[in-house]
Amino acid sequence: MISHTLFYRFAFTILLLTFATAPLYAQKDKDQREKIDKMAVQLEELKTEFTVMQRQVQSMQETLNKTTGEMNALITQMSDNISAIRRAHSALSTNVATISTSVSSVLGTTPISSVNEQITATNQRMERISEQFAQLKKLIEDIPKQPVLAQITPGNPEQLFAAAYSDYSRGNYDLALSEFRQYVETYPSSELADNAQYWIGEILYAQKKYDAAITELDRVAAISPKGDKVTVALYKKAQVLMEMGKKEDGLAQLAAIVKNYPKSVEGGLATQQLQRLAPELLVPEPEPAPLRKKK
Question: CA 223 to CA 191: how far, in whole Å?
Answer without folding.
Answer: 10
